[in-house]
Hints:
Blueprint: H1 4-14, E1 19-23, H2 28-39, E2 45-49, H3 60-66, H4 70-75, E3 77-79, H5 82-85, E4 91-95, E5 106-107, H6 109-123, E6 127-131, H7 140-144, E7 148-150, H8 163-178, H9 195-211, H10 223-234, H11 238-267
Parallel strand pairs: 1-2, 1-6, 2-3, 4-6, 4-7, 5-7
Helix pairs in contact: 2-3, 2-8, 6-8, 9-10, 9-11
Amino acid sequence: MCSAETLILASVRDSHGPRFVLMHTSHAGNVGAAARAIKVMGFGDLVLVAPRFADVLSHEDAVAFASGAADVLTRARVVPTLSDALDGITHALATAMTPRDFGPPTFAPRDHFAALAPRLATEGGRVAFVFGGERHGMANADVWRCHGCLSIPTAPDYGSLNLAQAVQLIAYEWRQALGSFPVAPRTAPPAVADMRAVDGALAHWQAVLERIGFLDPAAPKKLMPRLQQLLNRAELREEELHILRGIARAVEGAARVSSNDSAASKDR
């Protein structure tokens, strides 16, 4: 459960971020999945306009699909009209096709957000992304209320997206426009073998290659310089260089055993 202090702090944060408006949703699972989608991008203002079920925010499917974003569902609001949902919003964008007769301009999210995000930051405005219901999308009258339409670039012959998928894509693109979260590496940076260690490995390999007859010391040509360039391009880690030296030792041992066997055969 979320503490009262956590909910208050989250509400303050949401008052400055984007709002995600879902209209006439019919599937509780989509509401929960949408809550999860916006939370992973650092957002939390979710408003539902006249959903099919009044208790959708507490429905078991919504909670299950939220998967850790129950706090977004707790703070979400249900309102009767789009006008109520856009209270405090200065710029609304519909995720719907522009009506055929006339309507707001249509934009691809990435290019439009790159210009819109800094503008709203300067003006102190707030954006809302409005999504239609699963069954019928958005009515023309609701689209006309918006400043623009967003069209997610998809394959020309199949552009159908699940509601929560569309929410995730828009939330991601808006986060990118604001400045993405840093990606933290899961492992420590690898230690690259220094040149002295590489030279030692090459010397080891040279001795082994001469022993097994692969390299003629009297006519080495450019074999060792080529191996040197190969290792330079590879930028081997210390562990990888240890593996190569281990292989060289194994080859050296096998060559010694073979030589001893040959000598023993001659003595018999």
